[in-house]
Design goal:
Layout: E1 5-10, H1 21-30, E2 33-39, H2 46-57, E3 64-68, H3 81-93, E4 99-105, H4 114-133, E5 138-143, H5 146-155, E6 162-164, H6 171-179, E7 182-186, H7 196-205, E8 210-212, H8 239-250, H9 254-268
Parallel strand pairs: 1-2, 2-3, 4-5, 5-6, 6-7, 7-8
Length: about 270
């Protein structure tokens, strides 16, 4: 039986894929990837994001490609107020599925400084407001800041839902996001038996609150990493490995799990059908 998979988080527009994007798109479709989301992170790449989406959607046997522009907290130093204006213009003129990836990131020491963290919060809030204005879900990037992200979402009374991407929090935090209408994004990390926290989260929540993502070119599944290279490039073709890892963790058949995850993906992205 063929399975339908949705890669809910990719950076398939980045230069890593310029040489073989078309071949990879065909291979992803062959592997069962019916749809993928192209995620924004800095304003200077917005036009490339749009071009990639248009390019992929004119290919015959490629996954359907969706657009989610946003300003990523990790690149906060680069963001300017006019970038928010550009984002709003794209949301107004293009067929965008979500605003992403947005949130807070205090992984680096400099991002914990009061002024930088405040700027992250301001840009996150501004983008939540844009999502509310255009009635779009959001794709959350959260590193070492789960409580703060939850507090900001509650302050804005955010109701459009979305996906907590590459989730790295604990079970209680995951449940809090689910309660706010979010699905939890599971990457290739689920293929690592040592990712104990992630395994606990998915097992505590169950399949109905999860979606799959590659986060390519990052987060390569364990089985696709080679010791000869520091970091192997991840691609949408690897999504079945994420499904496989999650199915093992949950003790479910891959086909059964794929059906649930497909439905979850459509729901979290406000799609009725493909």
């Amino acid at each position: 039986m063929s399975m339908k998979l949705f890669d809910t988080h990719t950076h398939f527009d980045v230069p890593d894929f310029d040489s073989d994007r078309e071949a990879l798109a065909y291979a992803a479709k062959q592997a069962g990837v019916e749809a993928l989301v192209l995620i924004g992170f800095v304003e200077q790449r917005f036009s490339e994001l749009l071009n990639t989406q248009q390019y992929l959607n004119q290919l015959k046997n490629a996954p359907k490609s969706y657009l989610a522009p946003g300003l990523h907290p990790f690149y906060i130093e680069q963001h300017q107020p006019e970038h928010l204006n550009h984002l709003e213009a794209i949301l107004a003129s293009e067929d965008c599925i979500a605003v992403g990836e947005i949130g807070l990131d205090t992984f680096l020491k400099q991002h914990k400084q009061a002024d930088i963290l405040q700027k992250q919060s301001d840009y996150f809030s501004a983008q939540i407001e844009l999502a509310q204005q255009f009635d779009k879900p959001i794709l959350l990037h959260i590193r070492k800041s789960h409580a703060d992200v939850l507090a900001i979402l509650k302050k804005h009374q955010y109701r459009q839902g979305g996906i907590a991407h590459a989730f790295s929090g604990g079970v209680e935090e995951a449940k809090a996001f689910v309660k706010l209408g979010f699905k939890i994004g599971v990457t290739g990390q689920i293929t690592n038996p040592n990712a104990k926290k992630l395994h606990q989260v998915v097992q505590a929540l169950g399949a109905e609150h999860l979606v799959l993502e590659t986060d390519c070119p990052d987060m390569t599944p364990l089985c696709c990493q080679h010791s000869t290279e520091q970091r192997t490039r991840n691609t949408p073709v690897n999504l079945p490995y994420v499904l496989q890892g999650l199915a093992q963790s949950l003790g479910l058949a891959e086909q059964e799990l794929a059906t649930i995850l497909w439905k979850n993906s459509l729901q979290s992205l406000h799609l009725t059908a493909l």
